[in-house]
Design a protein that fits this description.
Elements: E1 8-11, H1 15-27, E2 31-37, H2 44-48, E3 51-56, H3 67-77, E4 81-83, H4 93-101, E5 105-106, H5 111-118, H6 120-128, H7 145-155, E6 159-163, E7 173-175, H8 181-196, E8 201-205, E9 211-219, E10 225-237, E11 240-246, H9 253-269, E12 274-282, E13 288-294, H10 301-308, H11 312-320, E14 337-344, E15 346-347, E16 353-354, E17 357-358, E18 361-363, E19 370-374, E20 381-382, E21 389-397, H12 400-412, E22 415-417, H13 423-431, H14 433-437, H15 444-448, H16 460-478, E23 491-492, E24 501-502
Parallel strand pairs: 1-2, 1-4, 2-3, 4-5
Antiparallel strand pairs: 6-7, 6-8, 9-10, 9-12, 10-11, 11-14, 12-13, 14-21, 15-16, 17-20, 18-22, 19-21, 23-24
Helix pairs in contact: 4-5, 5-6, 12-13
């Protein structure tokens, strides 16, 4: 057990999560060092930090993913802690090990936990002895077609083939007919090799109409482990989350307690230290199954912070210093409800196609219970080199119903121009009857969303304006004015949309 005072943290990341970590570090009186690429030279996280070090050109493979340069930047600036955020090097066990060997605190779990939970097959093996419910499937990697067919008949159809080292939906194939097993196996192995350099795949029974529920855990170096309740993450596109909320509308107190205890056991199974997330699938009968553990801070951590009042980044830093958790499980309770919308530079009407451009206008909403974690500013450029997420819009209210209304209000008052975003999709999803009723699953986008769903009636003030325009046009035509209106356009700015409408 290490007791050390962290006085300067290098944030091995960019964008909103880098700014998020900088804010808490500054509140704790800790100096901060930003790293950046040549593309991010004037990015908000660079300007917010006390010091900044350039890693290289724009592509992450030439900058943010260069472990040698990141570690050297910490050493050169005298940083005695490195926070990896999420993505990039956050789940790289070799990097974490090198950081610790260099005498710098890695603000995250130990290397054994990262390696174990970073491989889905190893993770399943690690939790077996602790009676954690698992989806029926293969015990090891599978590559032979004949063996795959044999296992498919044992497991039963439909099934899913997954990359052992995978994530984000890559190397994942759903199979509904036994005659498709061989072809989909080949595709999954190929994709896994391309994406992760590891072609190991396994098969599981496909859980139909599942809910994706995850449980936040915190563990210190003294054997104390707690859970901070669950997050609902079922609204996804391309197997990646878009809307999250806490608590889940699906769970009652009994199921919440059972899943929380299971999450703690998963953490203990790999001697976990720090903040981590245990992910589960829940079927239509409310039976839950262990999916995986993410050994880092999650994108959606703010909803947990809202309902518990716990600053998870602060706890990560305290734990890395060797301190005990300052609270026990009995001290924790759920206060109100929180929803998060990930705001991506994507066109939902075109299959969530990512976009680039300059933010000609960027004005986030403000107000009680409204939080925006962002890493962009007006005039900033959305680059092709990085994830298209611009920000996270998070709201909190006393009830789920009030929270939904507050989120819609916040979306209506979030102005972004220059790129298309998922704000309009977020409004559609959160206002949909399936979401409002709590009766939805991971198939929400497939089952309910099409591009035309984004077209809705204009707000009252826009309707009045449009009517005036129509009346004026009619008068001009009646007077046989020579002005040609056939090709004229009037720009109407709907207060909730992030793009211009043509009328």
């Amino acid at each position: 057990m290490t007791n050390r005072k962290i006085t300067k943290i290098l944030i091995a990341n960019r964008g909103e999560i880098a700014l998020r970590i900088i804010r808490t570090a500054q509140e704790m009186g800790i100096s901060t060092v930003a790293v950046y690429s040549e593309t991010d030279v004037v990015a908000p996280h660079v300007l917010a930090a006390d010091e900044a070090v350039c890693l290289g050109p724009g592509p992450s493979s030439e900058s943010y993913l260069l472990a040698d340069k990141v570690l050297q930047a910490a050493i050169d600036t005298g940083a005695n802690g490195i926070h990896p955020g999420y993505g990039f090097l956050s789940e790289n066990a070799d990097f974490a090990e090198r950081v610790e060997k260099a005498g710098v605190a890695f603000i995250g779990p130990g290397t054994m936990a990262i390696r174990t939970m970073g491989d889905k097959l190893q993770a399943k093996e690690a939790v077996k002895a602790r009676n954690i419910p698992l989806v029926p499937g293969t015990d090891g990697a599978i590559s032979d077609a004949k063996e795959a067919l044999k296992e498919a008949r044992r497991i039963g159809m439909p099934l899913i083939i997954k990359a052992s080292a995978g994530g984000g939906g890559k190397g994942m194939r759903s199979v509904f007919k036994i005659e498709d097993v061989e072809e989909e196996l080949t595709r999954a192995i190929s994709e896994a090799e391309r994406s992760f350099g590891n072609g190991a795949v396994f098969m599981e029974r496909l859980v139909l109409q599942p809910r994706h529920i995850e449980v936040q855990v915190l563990a210190d170096m003294h054997g104390n482990v707690v859970h901070l309740f669950e997050r609902e993450c079922s609204i996804q596109r391309r197997h990646q989350k878009v809307v999250e909320e806490a608590p889940s509308s699906l769970l009652d107190d009994t199921l919440r307690d059972e899943m929380g205890k299971c999450a703690i056991e998963v953490a203990r199974a790999c001697d976990y230290v720090g903040a981590g997330t245990v992910e589960f699938l829940v079927d239509v009968d409310k039976k839950f199954f262990f999916l995986e553990m993410n050994t880092r801070l999650q994108v959606e951590h703010p909803v947990t912070e809202f309902i518990t009042g716990i600053d998870l980044v602060r706890e990560q830093i305290r734990i890395a210093e060797g301190k005990e958790l300052s609270f026990s499980q009995s001290d924790l309770s759920i206060s109100g409800h929180s929803i998060e919308l990930r705001v991506y530079a994507e066109d939902a009407s075109e299959g969530f196609l990512p976009g680039t451009g300059v933010l000609s206008k960027y004005v986030p909403p403000v107000g009680p219970g409204i939080r925006v974690d962002d890493g962009v500013i007006q005039g900033g450029e959305v680059s092709i080199h990085y994830d298209p997420m611009l920000s996270k819009l998070i709201v909190h209210a006393s009830t789920r119903e009030d929270c939904i209304e507050k989120m819609i209000h916040a979306i209506d008052n979030y102005e972004i121009r220059g790129v298309k975003t998922t704000l309009d999709f977020g409004r559609f999803a959160i206002n949909h009857e399936a979401f409002r009723s709590g009766n939805f699953d991971t198939g929400f986008v497939k089952d309910h969303f099409t591009a035309d769903k984004l077209i809705r009636e204009l707000p009252v003030e826009d309707e009045i304006f449009a009517s005036l325009v129509a009346e004026l046009s009619e008068r001009v035509n009646n007077e046989k004015n020579k002005v040609q209106l056939e090709n004229a356009t009037v720009t109407i700015r709907s207060p909730w949309r992030n793009r211009e409408e043509r009328s």
